[in-house]
Structures are given as C-alpha cells and as structure tokens.
Design goal:
- The chain has 13 helices and no strands.
- The chain is mostly helical and 252 residues long.
- It has one domain.
- Helix 1 runs parallel beside helix 12.
C-alpha cells in the first residue's frame, strides 16, 4: 500500500527526475527500496502525470502535427520510427526489466554508464536542424536502454540528438514529443496493475497534482540548462550516484 506521505515523496522525485537526465525510474526504484515497497503500477501512473506537462507546454506543436501536411507526415514518421524499438523491447523483456528494478548492482552500473554518455554531449556541435530517418532510428534504439533503471529516457533521446548534431531546440522538442505516445502506451499496459493497487483516490489525486506541477517547472528549467550548454554536467551527478549505489550494494 502506498501511503499519502510515500506518494508525496515519490511525486516530487518523479516530477524532477522524469525530465532531468537522471533517470526517474532509477530514483523511484531507489526510493521505494528505502520506503520498503515496490509498485511499478504507481510508477507508471506518476509517469502519466508527467507527460501531461509535455502536452501543456508543447500543445501548439502537437496541434500543428494534426494537420497532415507533407512535412508533418515526414515528422510523424520519424516519431513512429523512434517509438517502435522501445515498444518491442519493452513487451519482449518486460520481466527482465522488472528484475533490474530490484537489483542495486544493475542500477549502479547503469547510472555510471549513462553518466558517461551524458557527459560526452559536451563535445557535440549543431550540424542540422531536424532529425533524419537514420537519426530517428538511432534515437529510438538508444531510447530502449531507458527501460532499465539508472538510464533516463529524456537523457538518452536528448543526448542522442545532441551527439548526432541536431539543433538543441529540435532535440528537446523531438524528445518530449516522443514521450507522449510511449508513456501513454505504458500506462495502458500497466492499467490493470494500477487499478489493483487499491490506492485511495485522494492519494492518487494528490500525487498526480504534485507530479504535474513539478514537471512543468522542471521542463522549463531543463530547456534553459540545455540552451546554456550545461546539459553535460548531469553526467557527473549520474556517475557519482552510480558509485554510491554500488557501494551500498556491496556494503549491504
């Protein structure tokens, strides 16, 4: 059972870590281990609240894509291509992914590897305005790694976009628009587990509200950080956290 206090703590963690490249799934898994429970359905519910922030902030871009012009069709195709790999891997390896969420050794290793990847974006440079079909596939395959705790979805997609030389604003937009169908899909897959969690409606509403508001602030702040060329600094945080998690794993 998720208590109101647990829900509040996890909601703030989700709202901050979902969009910063520091793995919301990894932080939620660590927090739940500390709090003494694990509820993947509740995690997905919080992710659903987070994605609503994208719909609010990027509503105009989403609305424009509903007009099926030639350019929009090409852009939607690129989004689809980037979604397919994570959908296939998520369904095929669902149980393996669940196991990783309870394994500190895996989490520590993933945090460190991901941190090195994020820091490498320091050496990227803008070369093109929008992602090509090849770029979309690369971003899509990179995104599959974010199914595991310790690897951030937004970090992998934005980071891959920057390394591929895509313009900062476009890398951000493409990453966030990708999140909408992916998180909505995950919510549908885990809907039964969410319903069976027997979490009080007031707790769910409180968690949803906190996660949404925190996500709105975090997304705006992340955009400023990326535009100021400080995105790579999150890599240091991930490596340090990964080392701490590994130490905790071997000490316990």
């Amino acid at each position: 059972m998720v208590s109101l206090l647990d829900a509040i703590i996890l909601s703030f963690i989700q709202g901050i870590t979902e969009w910063f490249p520091i793995s919301s799934s990894g932080h939620l898994a660590l927090a739940q281990q500390y709090l003494g429970f694990q509820n993947l359905g509740f995690d997905v519910y919080l992710h659903f609240a987070s994605v609503l922030a994208v719909v609010i902030l990027f509503g105009k871009d989403i609305a424009k894509l509903t007009f099926l012009t030639k350019a929009n069709k090409k852009y939607l195709l690129r989004i689809l291509l980037a979604i397919i790999p994570v959908g296939i891997v998520g369904l095929l390896y669902r149980e393996h992914i669940r196991y990783a969420f309870s394994n500190l050794l895996f989490m520590g290793i993933f945090f460190i590897i991901f941190g090195i990847f994020i820091y490498s974006t320091k050496f990227s440079s803008e070369q093109k305005h929008k992602p090509s079909i090849a770029d979309s596939l690369i971003i899509g395959f990179a995104q599959t790694l974010s199914l595991f705790p310790g690897i951030s979805r937004s970090g992998m997609t934005v980071g891959s976009g920057l390394i591929l030389g895509i313009k900062k604003e476009e890398a951000i937009k493409f990453s966030f628009l990708l999140a909408v169908p992916i998180i909505l899909g995950a919510t549908l897959v885990e809907a039964k587990e969410i319903a069976l969690s027997n979490i009080p409606p007031t707790t769910l509403l409180t968690a949803f509200t906190i996660t949404l508001l925190t996500s709105l602030v975090t997304i705006k702040l992340l955009i400023k950080i990326i535009n100021s060329d400080k995105f790579h600094l999150f890599g240091i945080y991930n490596v340090v956290l990964g080392i701490i998690v590994l130490i905790l794993n071997f000490v316990n």
